[in-house]
DNA sequence: AGATTGACAGACA
DNA sequence: CTGTCTGCCAATC
């Protein structure tokens, strides 16, 4: 009710609701915003980022737990520091991890994935 | 004003 | 198991 706002605004609301120390995936945010298919729209919403500093895009990660390489505010390395500073559990760069979004550093979704 | 892209994710072959 | 394709909405060219 009284929320005819586009998914875009919906995404901002969800992302801003992510508690400190936890992270959410694009799919989860998109799911809370309406449909998990909007995952690509979630990234777009954060891309416009009409309210910088207000939307913790660093708390939004891929389904694999990796981040957006090159699109983070200052680099995936900075993101790891921020999340780690918030108390988010990270997995060390495993050699067998071909998923090296943030230099092999993946967020431990098993522990820190945000759940409403 | 129309076509294409876009920080993804899931389903299918 | 890997690779490819589609689906969704809005913004941009």
If you had to describe this structure to a student in words, what would you say it looks like?
This protein is mainly α. The chain has a single domain, classed as Arc Repressor Mutant, subunit A. 37% of the residues lie in helices and 7% in strands. The chain has five helices and four strands. A two-stranded parallel ribbon has the order 1-2. It has a two-stranded antiparallel ribbon with strand order 3-4. The longest helix has 11 residues, at 76-86. The chain binds a DNA duplex (13 and 13 nucleotides) through residues 6-8, 25-27, 30, 34-48, 57, 60, 62-63, 67-72.
> Which sheet architecture does the biggest sheet show?
2 strands, parallel
**CATH class descriptor:** Mainly Alpha
Helix content: 25-40%
Termini, distance in Å?
20 Å
Write out the strand line-up for the largest beta sheet, numbering strands in chain order: 1-2
Morphology call = globular
Number of helices: 5
Query: Structural class of the helices, strands and pairings?
Result: mainly alpha
User: What is the CATH homologous superfamily assignment?
Assistant: Winged helix-like DNA-binding domain superfamily/Winged helix DNA-binding domain
* CATH architecture name: Orthogonal Bundle
Strand and helix order: HEHHEHEEH
User: What is the total tally of β strands?
Assistant: 4
Determine the mean pLDDT.
Answer: 84
The proportion of strand residues reads: 5-15%
What's the structural domain tally? 1
CATH topology: Arc Repressor Mutant, subunit A
Rg, alpha carbons: 14 Å
Report the uncertain regions: none
GO biological process, one term: DNA repair
InterPro entries: ATL_DNA_repair, MethylDNA_cys_MeTrfase_AS, MethylDNA_cys_MeTrfase_DNA-bd, MethylDNA_cys_MeTrfase_DNAb, WH-like_DNA-bd_sf
Domain Methylated-DNA-[protein]-cysteine S-methyltransferase DNA binding: 7-88
Keywords: DNA damage, DNA repair, Methyltransferase, Transferase
């Amino acid at each position: 009710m009284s929320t005819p706002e586009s998914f875009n605004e919906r995404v901002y609301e969800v992302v801003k609701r992510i508690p400190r120390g936890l992270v959410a995936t694009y799919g989860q945010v998109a799911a809370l915003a309406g449909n998990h298919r909007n995952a690509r729209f979630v990234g777009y919403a954060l891309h416009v980022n009409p309210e910088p500093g207000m939307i913790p895009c660093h708390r939004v990660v891929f389904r694999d737990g990796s981040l957006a390489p090159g699109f983070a505010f200052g680099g995936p390395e900075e993101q790891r520091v921020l999340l780690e500073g918030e108390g988010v559990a990270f997995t060390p760069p495993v050699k067998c991890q071909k998923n090296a979004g943030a230099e092999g550093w993946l967020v431990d979704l098993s522990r820190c994935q945000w759940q409403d």
